[in-house]
Amino acid sequence: MAEEQLKAFIEKVQGDDSLQEKLKAAADSEAVFAIANEAGFSISADDLKKAQPTELSEEELKGVAGGNPSSYWKRIEFYKRIDAPLY
Q1: CA-to-CA distance for 36 and 23, rounded, in angstroms?
Q2: Is a pLDDT exceeding 50 seen at residue 81?
Q3: Which pLDDT does position 86 carry in this prediction?
Q4: How far is residue 40's CA from residue 9's CA, in Å, rounded to a whole number?
Q5: How far apart are CA 79 and CA 47, in angstroms?
Q6: Is 2 helix (H, G, I), strand (E, B) or coil?
Q7: What pLDDT band is residue 1 in, cutting at 50, 70 and 90?
Q8: How far are the Cα atoms of 51, 52, 54 from residue 46, in angstroms, in the given order?
Q9: Residue 85 pLDDT greater than 80, yes or no
Q10: What DSSP letter does each residue of 56-79 carry, written as one string?
Q11: Cβ neighbours for 29, distance < 8 A, ≥ 6 positions apart
């Protein structure tokens, strides 16, 4: 359930400029979790740790190898914004 919440939140953020601005202004990971909760999503630091893949997905690997790393870099940027370890 937590992974579904995280995926749903990421999808919501990608289509919502207001949420994107709030996340950019977030001072730390606790602020990010508060923004997620205000938007109706239940996400914690533990959820993020559990949801982080240890390897690139096949799609991400193809994107990086083919010169289109957008999904990989979007994930990297998201985790940087919330001060979460990448792996």
Answers
A1: 9
A2: yes
A3: 47
A4: 9
A5: 12
A6: helix
A7: low
A8: 9, 10, 15
A9: no
A10: --HHHHHHHHTT--HHHHHHHHHH
A11: 45, 82, 83, 84
Report pLDDT digits (tens) over 15-63: 899 998 898 898 888 888 899 999 999 888 787 777 666 666 777 666 6
Residues 6+ apart with CB under 8 A from 78: 10
Q: What is the pLDDT of residue 3?
A: 77
Q: How far apart are the first and last CA of the chain?
A: 21
Residue 23: C-alpha distances to residues 18, 66, 82 (Å): 9, 30, 8
Give the angle subtended at the CA of 11 by the CAs of 85 and 66, to the nearest 5°: 70
User: Which residues, in sequence order, are CB contacts of 73 under 8 Å at separation 6+?
Assistant: none
The identity of residue 2, as a single letter, is A
Task: Please report the DSSP string for 5-43 in residue order.
Answer: HHHHHHHHHHT-HHHHHHHHH--SHHHHHHHHHHTT---
